[in-house]
Prior knowledge:
Elements: E1 13-18, H1 24-31, H2 54-59, E2 60-63, H3 75-83, H4 90-103, H5 119-131, E3 137-141, H6 149-164, E4 168-172, H7 176-182, E5 185-190, E6 193-199, H8 213-218
Parallel strand pairs: 1-4, 1-5, 2-3, 3-4
Antiparallel strand pairs: 5-6
Amino acid sequence: xxxxxxxxxxxxxxxxxxxxxxxxxxxxxxxxxxxxxxxxxxxxxxxxxxxxxxxxxxxxxxxxxxxxxxxxxxxxxxxxxxxxxxxxxxxxxxxxxxxxxxxxxxxxxxxxxxxxxxxxxxxxxxxxxxxxxxxxxxxxxxxxxxxxxxxxxxxxxxxxxxxxxxxxxxxxxxxxxxxxxxxxxxxxxxxxxxxxxxxxxxxxxxxxxxxxxxxxxxxxxxx
Length: 223
């Protein structure tokens, strides 16, 4: 990463766009404290929460591209296990699990082992595990990559629902239509640098990002 400066506002949906290897995932891992920056600083909630602290881990939810729910456990068991880190009261935990299961339409699969689920439902479980702690900021790395159209639409609806609840959401995508539908502002990363940040409707007028013209035309078949 090279001299990136950005601010993500509370309650907004912020999209990160860039080619493979541009640095999107690295930036997300720095934001979530999984990678220590060699220089510079980052703050959460104006600096009130220290990065990498226990409080930050509760405040931030991160769904990676390689998120893997525990395959030998059922959906219910996965959520109960991860929820136990946040809820000591079993009644509250059960209520939270039922709420998330309903939001993600996982009711038919609640007692199935994760290893027998479809790719789309495994991704839903990965998102559900993160949501169990009710984080204020949700970080999603290519959340709809490889999913069927129906599941993609359900996750889009979930993102909209979470925004309406006041959550802050940051996600990466190679699909321009997806970015346009869900975000107020985007950042474009190229070779580790932030080359554009702003409202998506201004993107086509920026001479610095001509490589994105194809994405605007074809809906984003490349990353």
